[in-house]
Each structure stands twice: as structure tokens, then as C-alpha cells.
Design goal:
Blueprint: H1 13-29, H2 42-55, H3 69-82, H4 84-99, E1 108-117, E2 128-130, E3 135-144, E4 150-157, H5 162-177, E5 183-186, H6 192-201, E6 204-207, H7 224-233, H8 247-267
Parallel strand pairs: 1-5, 5-6
Antiparallel strand pairs: 1-3, 2-3, 3-4
Helix pairs in contact: 1-4, 1-8, 2-3, 2-8, 4-8, 5-6
Length: about 280
Amino acid sequence: MSERKPYASDLSDERWTLIEPVITAWKASHPSVSGHQGKYEMREIVNALLYQSRTGCQWSLLPHDLPPRSAVMYYYNLWRADGTDKAIHDLLRFQIREKKRRLADPSLVVLDTQSKHAAAGVPATTTGKDAAKKVPGRKRGLAVDVLGLVIAVVVAAASIHDNAIGNALLDRVVANTGGTVTKALVDQGFKNTLVAHGADLGIDVEVVQRNPADQGFVPQPKRWVVEQTYGILDLHRRLVRDYEHDPASSESRVYWAMTDVMTRRLTSTSTPTWRLT
């Protein structure tokens, strides 16, 4: 890695060791026709992506001592398109579950959606207004395991009903886990069509009812983990709004944010705070 003052978002040697094998394998399977090895170190490309994830900065405002935006964008788009971002994410998820003495894939997931305002310049054709929450922008759907780890993510226009997001999430859960999931917990925003779709996939979808006596936000057993994951993702400022032109890029941002989170969990590294000390 080039000599420069490190950023708080940079990968430590220990954290980079968790990611490096996937990147090295990717590089080996994508040799340059000219034999050129590339001007920028892959670790620095990932550091730039994690810096942008944490700070939310524009591509043009990446620090000058990190690789230029053209190089970072090139690899970001390439890894999104060929699934390398998800491959890194899933490998880390398997490792955390193994560390917690769990099987690689879960048997239970928790689903929820979150509507986010879209930034200026995001194509109107990919956004909409959440009729219930009155939020114009995009809707982010997550399926997480009991540890709060992301099993599937779907991003669509905020006008899309939760059921449609839920159906897509369940389809991806099955694809991502090989059919190990047999139970899904959802809130009352999801309806019977999701329950029926889950049954077709062999997944028992349980709509967790809210206690009418509860006032304000009250965490519900097991379901609270998805709310916790949304809160953790919001520490990554690139996810506070939806800045991406392509919803697939929005999904990729979730994978990179969780990659940051999981490498820290695996190495017992604290997440830097934004509060000044």
C-alpha cells in the first residue's frame, strides 16, 4: 500500500487478509490482455469504496491520495456486475456464523422494508412515493438472520408495495441459501400474498402482530434484529439517502457497508464514531 496518512475507514492488515483471497482470485481470472498488472493496488481500491461508504462523499470528492474516481468506479461497477461484491460479503457472513457455532446458512430470516429519500439526479423512472410513509424515493428491503447479517437485499421504487419487495426477498433468500430457510418473520405491513408466496417456496411466513397497548417504537422479539441492521447501515452515510442511479448499485452499497461491519466483527475492531472527542 502506498505511503499516506491512514483514514479511519481504511482496512487494517488483519481485515484486508479476510478480503484479499477473493480479490486475488478475481484478478487471476481476469488477466489483462497486455499483461499489465494495473496501476493501483486492490487494497487501495477497496479502501476508497469504504471511505465513500462511511463518508457519503461524491465520486469527484474522493481524496487525492486515494485512487482516482475513474479507477474506483471501474472496479465498483465491475464487481457489482459480476457479483464479486456479494461473494466477498457472503464469505464473511459464513465466517461469522461459523464463529458463532452456526451452520453457514440460516433456517430463519426476518424481513422488513425501509423507505429512503432519493438524492437529486436519481432517475425518476427508478423512484416513487411510499404512500404509507409519504417518502419519495426508493424502498430498501432486507432479509436478515438472527445475528442481523444480511441474507438478501432488494432495492426498488418506494411506490412498490411491501408484498412485492417481500416476494423478491424470499426468492433471493432461497437462491442465496440453497433452500435452508423454513421460517420468515415479517411485520403487519406485509399481507397474505407474501404468506402464500412463502408457502409455495416451502417457507412459513409469520406476520408478527403488534401489541395494541404499545406506544411508540417497541422492539419485538427476534424481529428487532432487522431494525438493528438498518440502524447500523445508517452509520454509513452513503446509505442515509439513495444516491445511486441504478438500484443494483444501491444493493451493492449495502453489501460493501456490511463487508465493513463484518470484517470489524471478525477482527474485534471497533467502528469509528462520528462524534468529535
